[in-house]
Amino acid sequence: MKSKVYIETFGCQMNVADSERAATGLRKAGYELTQSAESADVVLLNTCSVRERAERKVFTRIADLQGASGKKLIGVMGCVAQLEGEAIFDHSSAVQMVIGTRATDRIPLLIERIQNGEERALDLGERGDGESWEISPVERHSPHVAFVPIIEGCNKFCSFCIVPYSRGREKSRSAREIVTEVRRLRELGYREIHLIGQNVNSYRPRTQDGQEHVFGATAFSRLLRAVAETGMERIKFTTSFPRDFHPDIVLAIEEYPNLCDWIHLPVQSGSDRILKAMRRGHNSEDYRRRVETIKKSKRRLSLTSDIIVGFPGETEEDFEQTMKQVEQCEYDGLYIFKYSKRAGTPAANFNDDVSPAEKTARFLALESLQREIQKGIYRSYLGRLVSVLVEGQSARSMADMTGHSTCHKVVNFRGAATLEGQIVDVLINEVKSNSLYGERMS
Ligand code: 5AD
Ligand code: SF4
Description:
Blueprint (H helix, E strand, L loop, with lengths): L3 E6 L3 H16 L3 E2 L8 E6 L4 H18 L3 E5 H7 L2 H5 L3 E5 L7 H9 L5 E3 L21 E5 L1 E2 L10 H5 L3 E2 L2 H13 L4 E5 L22 H10 L5 E5 L8 H9 L6 E3 L7 H6 L6 H12 L6 E8 L6 H14 L3 E6 L17 H24 L5 E9 L6 E6 L4 E5 L8 E9 L3 E7 L1
Parallel strand pairs: 1-2, 1-3, 3-4, 4-5, 5-6, 7-10, 10-11, 12-13, 13-14, 17-19
Antiparallel strand pairs: 8-9, 15-16, 15-18, 16-17, 18-19
């Protein structure tokens, strides 16, 4: 009998998709997948290194497993594996496999090597040509929502970011493959898909194969139309990169109701000086123009963003500009991060001169501003009907069900568990700071 494998995933949606893909390959190779580390012979940690804290988590987890396990084979996958390589073996003697971000399809071979007596196995190689992106439905994180990677890697090299080093250069899948996958997901009963990638709108396939029948000003807006034509009920996409955000994306959303009314467009800072040091390739005015296009749309589009506070050299005045930008953009949601120095990135050579206390103060000030803005936005939903994909029971109350709206807000409502997987209309009658509450309309 082959070993039982448990995969634990940290970090972004790309890691979730990679774990699903790894599980598909392992099961095909005869391994059994299990939901608990305790019952597994092989434990794989799919890791994140975007900030220091995420990276530290992995080593704490390895230590836990080491203490508990005895004879488990432990492997580290994902971004930490790719970046640290061989050094992980030195860091922790419990780890026997290091599996880079593009080696997910070769895990069965690595396990075999260890089982055949090798002490350690490492693969930091590229994806092989023609490798399958197939994900079996049983491995997907949800039976209702599926992640569909369209582009891997990143060529942008923002000065603070480790992703170009951990995930390599941008590589787009063919539109034909993507469209075929979405059609299959629809047949299988999935109600919503997320087209995912570090920068989805930098999508650049080698040929037009699979999107000849639709038009678009850019390869990505063309792909959006091709995917919308499949009839998949709800299509979301993330993350969009401001510099490559073409107005045709908004036109496509206006043309196809199944393209959802939500755009995630990270700004990172409101100060031109800091944006330049971040090497973002856009200034605050470029960004505001994109936001104007989004806000002027015929559909009310929800807009969310990411911001880093305390980037090296960020003065009080720079931070004020970020506050102003946030006031003007009126985000539906905002992820705020304190700058975290990542070895190997250009910004690691800058003087990390904003004190931890100052980073915290800016974080809290921005969070409180966003809370106020968000309150107003959420209140504007009172009395409105939103369409919700019911994903499960609410963690807070057994009597309530929870899901996301097309505009990607969490919506809770009184309802039976049998509604899971359905799309229902909910009339909003109460707002919380990060969710909406309402009554289901039949
Ligand atoms: N420090 C803090 N936040 C970071 N992010 C990326 N790199 C860093 C870093 N070194 C944030 C960015 C990005 C999000 C996914 O994580 O805001 O958009
Ligand atoms: Fe990182 Fe910038 Fe690439 Fe986003 S665009 S993954 S922030 S380098």
